[in-house]
Amino acid sequence: MEPIQIAIDGPASAGKSTIAKILATDLNFVYVDTGAMYRSVTLAALKQGVNPAAEADVIALLPHLEISFAPGNPVQKVFLNGEEVTDDIRSNAVTGNVSAVASYGAVRTAMVAQQRQIAAQGGVVMDGRDIGTTVLPDAEVKVFLIASVKERALRRFKENQAKGMTETLAEIEAAVEKRDYLDSHREISPLKKAADAVELDTTGLSIDGVVDAVKQIIAEKVGK
Ligand code: CDP
Ligand code: CDP
Fold it and tell me: Whose CA is nearest to atom 18 of ligand 1?
């Protein structure tokens, strides 16, 4: 397939990264996990004792941060100033503070610039919240993945249990709802379906079922 841009957006635990990674592997495209970038900035703040709610202090960190990826499937490694942070960026502390950090305009400007730079290098599957609306407005394929909040919380619960994390299903559901609310109501580039995105409700669908449905959407959009 020609090197096109595929944007996958949607709320927390809709299956974006799982689906995007499989597609990128199958198409031999680069996968970019933009959430990992906002998570890395949040981790940097927490590590350096900077309050994530203090916008100016978080912004002051930006010139000193270098976020990079090492391709890999199923796990793409994430590095912050050369140190691997692949697991650290998934901690509850990071998850609980990332929406605040991602609401800051200067943080978004810096991350979006890096995301566009990567996308300019060839075929890309990028997942996030504002890829179809802001980062890659001309992406050939835009998919907006959704699922009921109950199912999304259950997916994250099972994933966390497998990692030995101990939050209850109710706690995870509340955290997912809160993050979705913050991400959808922020001023800059809120979580929103792009006008030309195809919405896919994945409630009750297996991972393979979603991959097949997205491949169908790609075929309809680019005729392959
Ligand atoms: O995988 P999960 O749904 O837990 O979230 P993520 O994709 O890792 O994103 C973490 C957070 O980063 C989101 O809740 C948003 O606050 C922020 N984010 C964003 O603002 N814009 C993006 N393009 C991607 C993530
Ligand atoms: O990236 P995002 O937060 O949207 O979700 P994810 O991390 O790809 O998926 C969250 C969890 O749901 C993972 O454990 C996936 O294996 C699982 N999942 C699922 O059970 N069924 C799907 N159709 C998609 C994802």
Answer: 35
Q: Is the CB of 43 under 6 A from ligand 2?
A: no
Domain ranges of the chain: 5-217
> Which residue in this structure is represented by tokens 């100033």?
81
The question of ipTM being above 0.90 is answered as: yes
- pLDDT (tens digit per residue) in 54-73: 999 999 999 999 999 997 76
Q: What is the pLDDT of residues 2-16, one digit of tens each?
A: 999 999 999 999 999
Which tokens in the block code for residue 104?
Answer: 């800051």
| CATH number, domain 5-217 | 3.40.50.300
Which ligand is closest to the CA of 152, given by its number?
Answer: 2
pTM of the model as a whole: 0.96
Strands in 83-84's sheet, in edge-to-edge order, are: 67-70, 77-80, 83-84
H or E segment and range at residue 124: strand 124-128
CB 115 within 8 A of CB 135: yes
pLDDT of residue 223: 78
